[in-house]
Amino acid sequence: MEKYWDKDIETMPPEKMKALQSERLVKQVKHVYENVKYYRDLMDEKGVKPEDITSVDDLHKLPFISKADLRDSYPYGMLAVPLSECVRIHSTSGTTGKRVVAFYTQNDVDMWENCIARAITAAGGDENDVLQVAYGYGLFTGGAGVHGGSHKVGCLTLPMSSGNTERQIQFMQDLGATFLCCTPSYAAYIGETIQEMGISPDDLKLRAGIFGAEPWTEEMRQTIEKSLGIKAYDIYGLTETSGPGVAFECSEQKGMHINEDNFIPEVINPDTGEVLPDGEVGELVFTSITKEAFPLLRYRTRDLCVLSRGKCKCGRTLIKMTKPMGRSDDMMIIRGVNVFPSQIETVLIAEGYAPNYIIEVDRVNNNDTLDISVEMKPEQFSDKVKDMQDQERSLALAIKTMLGINPKVHLVSPKSITRSEGKAVRVIDKRRLHDMPAK
Amino acid sequence: MGYVRQISVFLDNKPNQLTGVMKLIKNHNINIRALSIADTKDFGILRMIVSDTEKAVDVLREASYAVAETEIVAITIPDTPGQLSRVLDILGEQNVNIEYLYAFLGKSDRSVSFVIRVDDNDNAYTALESGGIIRLTANDISEM
Ligand SMILES: [Zn+2]
Questions:
Q1: Is A415's Cβ below 8 Å from some Cβ in B?
Q2: pTM over 0.80, yes/no
């Protein structure tokens, strides 16, 4: 029997959902226009007034917001309520030099945590569960968000934060954790460590995991499910919209349901901005219709995915999105070809390698080079040089078949690539160094 | 009958890889009887015969090295011209393929010892025996 956290919303007939969205959107546009000068200027520039927006069908009239707008308006430019009404901030890691600070009122926090509660419930969780939060706590949305959602559901919450893997495993055993929530790369690492410690998944009570905050492949899901003996669910979100919980997987595990009573999704052509029909690949855009403090309208996520509507076997009517096929931030253009790390990861796992790798892109004599260092499994090592070179060559060929460009593959020792406890850094692009002007 | 086992270790292309292995081996009081390194642009493969194979493998695996254990052929031949070439001929006539070989110091300075990695040990043993080549056993090597 499927369980829902918020049955009325999650199984709402689409026409009724559309009416709810329209009502909220109209109110939200007015709120933003009146309180956010930055967006009011964008609307004025485009010649759109709040009165022009009477239903979700008018959404396309509104201007987009991009990450660059958030940078320009940092820190308070997108704030729509007085600071006295805000109770918290979270921030992106700023690894690409563009830190975003998002503000939350108490209502915003409640809305967000309810979204996560829906995800936990959809994964089969309830008040009898022991949920281990191994996302980082702090500015990062993962730890605090899942922690709050877990409280709402009534799970016994283990606020572990990330890191100290042996302690994670000890608590997992001693306190009988049934749910694990962290980044997929950390889940894979915990699985690997459990194996090394000689613990069988059968010795653990763990039965499900909710993993997000970075893109991961279907192959990675199978690896994690096997090593931890669980069902692994995806969760999607970004700090700009709230955090994890914007969309979540149900028991079907075929795409993620979007909490569209709070976030209206659109998919657009990233070059022209034109809205694409459901079923087509494009850039995902979100409009927050319930957020008070940091209500972004038509925010371009840079994630590429496909939307699809239709009643799911789980009974939910919420629109679904596919796993992002890659974030345009992650996308590398190598010799004119678009390359996502996830494509490379798919090949590695299919060829029997662990998903531990570093991609290095450089430019030599005006030619892009692609070097991929991959950890071998101990049993993949041979004392013959030729065997090792053959393995490198056949992996390079498989990657070439997938990408259309020739990489150089370097096998490296097991465990020689640093494990990540949060978001994994897998790409080193050295080309930017060459693009800097000479002094 | 005392087959000789060789340990190979994968060496990443970065500093102090060999030093790391040697330190581990030394700290566990393991002696190295024979050693060679195959180097490529990308990586190295260290091959060695040691006094305590099992312990060495455990210690190295524990430290996350990729380790392989292989049975190899060890022989000793007089240190005079043409001897190695004779061995190669004997093996060649029996269609034994040689993957690699390396020399190491034997018991006497009038003889020289070799580790030979072949694709078919049984075939090689028979060929060497009928050619009158002296094979070293694990015992022979541990007594060196
Ligand atoms: Zn569903």
A1: yes
A2: no
pLDDT tens-digit readout, A381-427: 999 999 999 999 999 999 999 888 899 999 999 988 887 776 677 88
Q: How far apart are CA A376 and CA A356, in angstroms?
A: 9
Q: Which of A437, A45, A381 has the alpha carbon at shortest distance from B70?
A: A381
pLDDT higher than 70, residue A434: no
CB contact under 8 A, B68 and A411: no
How far apart are the C-alpha atoms of A137 and A396, rounded to whole Å?
Answer: 39
DSSP reduced 3-state for A228? helix
Considering only the beta carbons, identify the residue of B6, B8, B43 that sits closest to A411. Answer: B43
CA pair distance B19, B31, nearest whole angstrom: 15
- C-beta atoms of A392 and B8 within 8 A: no
| Burial status of residue B100 (CB atoms within 10 A of its CB: 0-12, 13-18, 19 or more) | middle
**Which is higher by pLDDT, A127 or B137?**
A127
- Residue in chain A nearest B12 by alpha carbon: A412
How large is the ipTM?
Answer: 0.88
Q: What percent of chain B has pLDDT over 70?
A: 98
Q: Ligand 1 center to residue A286 CA distance, Å?
A: 20
Neighbour order of strands in the sheet with A307-308: A156-159, A130-133, A179-182, A208-212, A231-238, A243-249, A256-258, A320-321, A307-308
CB atoms B40 and A382 under 8 Å:
no
